[in-house]
Amino acid sequence: MERTNLLTSFQEFGLADPIARALQEENYHTPTPIQAQTIPLALAGRDVVGIAQTGTGKTASFALPILHRLLQNRIKPASKTCRVLVLSPTRELSGQILDSFNAYGRHVHLSAALAIGGVPMGRQVRSLMGGVDVLVATPGRLLDLVQGNALKLTQVEFLVLDEADRMLDMGFINDIRKIVAKLPIKRQTLFFSATMPKDIADLAEQMLRDPARVAVTPVSSTVERINQRVIQLDHSAKPAALAQILKDDKVNQALVFTRTKHGADKVVKGLARAGITADAIHGNKSQNYRERVLAAFRTGELRTLVATDIAARGIDVDGVSHVVNFDLPNIPETYVHRIGRTARAGADGTAISLCAGEEMAYLRDIEKLIKVSLPKEDRRTPGAHAAPTPPPHRGPRQAPHGHSPRNGDAPTRGKNHRRRGPAAGPARQSDASRHEAAPRPQHGGNGEGLQGVAFLQRKNRPAQPTAQHRPHR
Ligand code: AMP
User: Fold this and answer.
1) In CATH, what number is assigned to the domain containing residue 350?
2) Which of 58, 155, 343, 456 is 20 to 30 A from 349, alpha carbon to alpha carbon?
């Protein structure tokens, strides 16, 4: 791990004035740990491999140095090319990254575009005609654009791979390899992943040149601030237990997790029967629907949101006082991702897990990962609980159903940025979104970088042009 003297103020990075001004307007004063470590290295032109989760400020850790370096060498991108390519696994994350570039680069006058699946290609093709400085893309759509001769990757100077572990989970790795093979060898690559299992480390090894390694230092963590408990109960008792939890006045807003899309819909129906209004987001819901529901959740109009892991990834809503695991996740790291959705912005949070007998093995894995024995309340019917059977879905890693999710830019994130403008549009169900209930295969990850990560709250930004932003030069 690189050890540098960490800078405590953005001024010390020596970022170009227009960027420094935008940061002041964003009210960023102190760099987050991942920013303090990454920015100086990236400014110096190093390749960087960073272990950091969303919510740690990692977008700025790559966007700021890249903007600075683009400014140092202002050239007009050639037609159908981009100077910066950011690959992200999902439409929502891509949109947020583009928004961040536009926000931090608002005084820089660069062009930025989005190439995501699930929306018609025509506009994206047109926005690439004149070339762009920054292109944020999901892998399937990017390859389609390249194969359709709408884009050439020969002029890429900076490559960012974001949420690499998620890319692997979603079956994008072959697409990534194809894309990387088309890029110039001489480029700067910044590679981020929340975890660093072997497959990801191998991929980084192939893509990066003498990379500096950074990781967010475990600090007094969000996880520690979350009041966590487990209710052991019969499977059939879960709907009533959930309704009881949600009726408590202490629940400001609740995010309820289920393992499957079908499960999420079932929970919403069960809550309706108990007189509790809830809505669900998952990959079978249209992009418009998800955005509407998320908007209602953000404003507090919707108190209870039921979500699958993929759909909920990245939901940062201040008001979430409770996370309820209606089902325990079969991958222990997912538990950490889930409960990190509460206790945002310095608030306290509660995470309650409903654990039926067959989920005990999942619970043990979680406790092993977080190194905490969670307090448990046993509500199981006496005598009814047989010895726990091994839980299902713990199979080896493989691309679900053995096909690559081309254009399958599964919806996973929906922070405070809503997609507008030409890039937004009706979503068709992506292949990858259909996979969201598929087992996340085991990758021997060690959960590195997950525990104790400090999360930041993503705030609403003023409306930014999304699909392409090309002010006059
Ligand atoms: P990210 O991990 O990039 O998704 O960032 C999470 C949230 O933290 C976003 O809303 C950012 O705008 C915000 N953020 C990032 N860096 C900082 C900083 N240094 N100070 C304050 N907020 C920040």
Assistant:
1) 3.40.50.300
2) 58
CA distances from 308 to 265, 312, 315, 385 (A): 10, 6, 11, 27
For residues 147 and 129, state if they share a domain: yes
Ligand 1 atom nearest the C-alpha of 52 is 2
Give CA angle at 222 (449, 324), nearest 5°.
105
How far does the centroid of ligand 1 lie from the alpha carbon of residue 14, in Å? 19
CA–centroid distance, 27 to ligand 1, in Å, is: 10
pLDDT in tens, 372-423: 899 999 999 876 655 444 444 443 333 333 333 343 333 333 333 333 333 3
Angle at 102 between CA 22 and CA 66, to 5 degrees: 80
Is the pLDDT at 279 greater than 90? The verdict is: yes
Mean pLDDT of 297-308: 93
Residues in the chain, how many? 473
Total number of domains constituting the chain: 2
